[in-house]
Design a protein that fits this description.
single chain, alpha/beta, six-stranded parallel β-sheet, 9 helices
């Protein structure tokens, strides 16, 4: 932990998306100590979830259970705010699912609608359980905004694309654009330009450094 915090300080990292599995439920004191150390270093602590099955109603049942046990119940039991999570980070990528590769452009558009339904339902789930202070962030592919014929998603129109991102912004406070394959500063900025200009929430450009 000390080595990690030293690295975070050297790189000026101010947010950590942590994948902790059942640790907050099974070892809450250990989780609390780590969150205290992050906050003492001026770093946000967000709990990361990456189960693609949550895009289906059936898979969402398990997702809600994990969320309730590992974030909501954990946070509720902590009297010291420094021990709590600050938010929930989603690394649920429709384009990483096997089904994406075989779907048509219209099918991929439908998968993105499923993703939006999940994000909206998650925001409602949190708000209904007194967790309005938990912000949502989501990792997105930088090329989702691309329109046909160049894009991999068959947006019905510019308005359809714009409306999807607008609805996402109403439940997701920040998006992290995975511009990993871009090799130059100019290419990175070009790839993320539309979201940085149009997304009403926070836009983070994610790099593999």
């Amino acid at each position: 932990e000390a080595e990690a915090l030293t690295t975070f300080s050297r790189w000026n990292i101010r947010r950590v998306y942590g994948s902790y599995a059942a640790l907050p439920a099974e070892s809450p004191k250990q989780m609390a100590a780590w969150n205290r150390r992050l906050h003492a270093a001026g770093i946000r602590s967000e709990s990361l979830f990456s189960d693609g099955n949550a895009l289906t109603p059936e898979g969402r049942v398990l997702f809600w259970r994990h969320l309730d046990e590992r974030v909501l119940a954990y946070n509720a039991a902590r009297t010291d705010v420094a021990e709590r999570f600050d938010g929930i980070a989603l690394d649920i990528e429709p384009h990483a699912l096997p089904r994406w590769k075989t779907e048509s452009g219209e099918g991929r558009r439908a998968m993105l609608e499923d993703y939006l339904v999940l994000c909206a339902a998650l925001r409602t789930h949190l708000d209904a359980r007194g967790a309005r202070d938990l912000a949502l962030s989501a990792a997105l592919a930088y090329w989702l905004d691309s329109l046909p014929p160049a894009g991999r998603v068959t947006w019905r129109s510019v308005a359809d694309r714009d409306d999807w991102f607008a609805r996402l912004s109403r439940c997701v406070a920040a998006i992290s654009l995975m511009a990993y394959e871009r090799g130059t500063v100019t290419a990175i900025l070009d790839a993320t330009a539309w979201e940085r200009a149009n997304y009403s929430g926070r836009v983070v450009t994610a790099l593999r450094a």
